[in-house]
Write a structure and sequence with these properties.
The complex is a heterodimer of chains A (309) and B (243). Chain A is mainly alpha-helical and 309 residues long. Chain A contains 13 helices and eight strands. In chain A, strands 1-2 form a two-stranded antiparallel ribbon. Chain A has a two-stranded antiparallel sheet with strand order 3-4. In chain A, strands 5-6 form a two-stranded antiparallel ribbon. Chain A is elongated, with a radius of gyration of 35 Å. Classes of the chains: A mainly alpha (309), B mainly alpha (243). Chains A and B meet through strand 1, strand 4, helix 3, helix 6 and helix 7 of A and helix 1, helix 4, helix 5 and helix 12 of B.
Chain lengths: 309, 243
């Protein structure tokens, strides 16, 4: 054993037992400050028992003396402190909640034109709307509302299935939608299918005029296909049916932009007309999950993403 | 007692360690079993149907709980993001519960009806095809494998033993009719377990009308999470009274 350890040993007690002949263990006292901090925490624990809910007693428990206030439907209530009452307090009386409620109240009362002209409200909506959109909508429509071609529509462009006015957007979010187009596999023979697809592509300038286009037009606008019924005579779509505008160059369901040649483009359009759109384009209903004011915030937020009309 | 006596006697040491560390657990857990107000009195909470139950088993098998909690805590930020905090009543028939303790992904306690079935199927097969930044693994086999429901009756019977009200006798069935209505009581009847599984699978959660895949069960389960209690029926002060 070295000299220094021997000296230390003289100053500090050991636990008294020796292992393997000479291996001993010091029994250093804990530092004073540490020990006292420990006692203080123990005392604080006892104080806590009196303030907050703590020990179980019989079929109930010690509720503690602390009380807390909160509001239910605008009515003030008071109860013993517990986490649920604390939450209601935070939701109704905390500083952040009150500030937010003040703005939410304004948004709830204002009509759309007032909101659109009030920079303060718009700034509020951009910040709250971003959070709401991220939590509820981004999973389908993407963080920036860009959507997924074929599945979830782009909300940042100015092409709308169900209409791009604030009221239309609000209505879609509130009630949800089920995108639908019947399948034409029984209606058209292969030649007719080809002609209609050619016509649809010609509407946005993807296919040149030809006899096939003329034949397709007759089917589209006549009783043979009856496509005009939802997409309109001019193919500009019908928001009340969620029918797409076929004359702009924006493709929400058939991935025409992703194809290079006319033949490939025609193939995806034909496939869509053949199968229709069924059970794959569901926009959930948000009333019930989100409050009317939250939906209003989202409508303005989506409208502001770029393409509101 | 001197240190040495304990330190050289490992049997005694183990016993004393177990005693000391179990005190904390016992004090926190045991009273919950007999306190009057642990489980809130609310309408609507029912056991999982056979299809949902198999979905839950797959959820456990795949380890979804390692990244997803199912417990919304009573904090303002969670309330704003996920909705109403979870009630004890909502997991009373969960054995074992899926509260979880880690949130690599979002909480799923109220994910039911939030998204469409099609979204769930696509997201589970290839999460990055809908959420480009996602770090959730792909689960393509859920759509490939047919659901094994050969032991569904045994599974329901086992849960019944723990107190979950699946009905086996006429009397239990009648009680379920009174509590949940006839249609749901049929689905919770052990004697009709397979039929009810087939009936519910007709809703076609997986988009494959002619097959019952593991995906079918998992999506059916996800779509019911957090939807059983109608919170508009209660004023918020009501839930405070239970704590």
């Amino acid at each position: 054993m070295s000299e220094s350890t021997t000296k230390q040993q003289a100053a500090v007690q050991t636990t008294g037992h020796a292992w393997d002949g000479d291996l001993q263990e010091f029994n250093n006292p804990l530092p004073r400050w540490w020990l006292w901090s420990f006692y203080v925490t123990a005392v604080i624990a006892v104080i806590y028992w009196f303030i907050y809910p703590s020990w179980p007693v019989g079929r109930g428990w010690l509720e503690g003396f602390a009380t807390i206030t909160y509001q239910v439907d605008g009515k003030a209530e008071e109860s013993r402190w517990n986490t649920r009452a604390k939450l209601l307090h935070d939701l109704t009386e905390s500083h952040a909640a009150q500030r937010q409620r003040e703005f939410m109240g304004k948004v709830a009362e204002a009509d759309f034109s007032t909101i659109s002209n009030d920079p303060d409200m718009l700034a509020f909506i951009r910040s709250v709307g971003k959070g709401l959109f991220g939590d509820n909508c981004a999973a389908c429509h993407g963080r920036g509302g860009q959507g997924v071609v074929g599945l979830y529509p782009n909300l940042a462009d100015d092409d709308w299935l169900w209409g791009g006015s604030l009221e239309n957007i609000q209505n879609v979010i509130t009630n949800g939608r089920q995108g639908f187009m019947p399948a034409f596999k029984e209606t058209f023979d292969p030649q007719q299918l080809d002609d209609v697809a050619e016509y649809v592509l010609s509407l946005s300038g993807e296919a040149p005029d030809s006899i096939a286009v003329e034949r397709g037009k007759a089917l589209f606008q006549g009783f043979g296909g009856g496509c005009y019924y939802c997409h309109g005579m001019d193919g500009k779509g019908l928001p009340s049916q969620g029918a797409a505008n076929l004359t702009d160059k924006i493709w929400t369901i058939a991935d025409v932009d992703g194809q290079k040649t006319l033949e490939e483009k025609k193939a995806v359009v034909k496939k869509l007309i053949f199968n229709g759109v069924q059970n794959m384009r569901k926009m959930p209903t948000w009333k019930g999950r989100l409050s009317p004011t939250e939906i209003k915030v989202l409508a303005v937020y989506v409208h502001q993403l770029g393409g509101g009309q | 007692m001197r240190h040495e006596n304990i330190e050289v006697n490992s049997g005694l040491m183990i016993l004393l360690i177990l005693t000391v560390i179990s005190i904390g657990g016992l004090v926190e857990v045991v009273p919950l079993f007999y306190l009057n107000d642990t489980i809130e009195k609310v309408d609507g909470v029912r056991p999982y149907t056979p299809l949902e139950l198999r979905g839950r088993d797959i959820y456990v098998r795949e380890g979804c709980y390692l990244c997803h909690s199912q417990q919304i805590r009573p904090f303002r930020d969670e309330w704003l993001r996920y909705g109403h905090y979870s009630l004890a009543a909502e997991s009373q028939y969960d054995h074992p519960f899926q509260w979880g303790s880690k949130r690599t992904g979002p909480d799923l306690a109220r994910v039911g009806k939030k998204y469409s079935n099609e979204w769930h199927v696509q997201h589970l097969v290839a999460p990055r095809s809908v959420v480009p930044q996602s770090i959730m693994p792909n689960y393509p086999w859920l759509l490939e494998r047919d659901l094994d429901f050969s032991d569904i009756t045994e599974r329901l019977k086992a849960l019944r033993k723990t107190g979950v009200p699946y009905s086996l006798t006429e009397e239990e069935y009648k009680a379920n009719v009174a509590a949940y209505g006839k249609e749901m009581a049929d689905w919770l009847d052990i004697n009709q377990a397979q039929d009810s599984l087939f009936a519910q699978a007709r809703n076609d959660y997986d988009g494959l009308p002619n097959r019952i895949t593991e995906m079918e069960a998992l999506v059916a389960y996800l779509q019911v999470l957090g939807t059983m209690v109608d919170f508009s029926q209660y004023d918020e002060g009501y839930f405070v009274e239970f704590r």
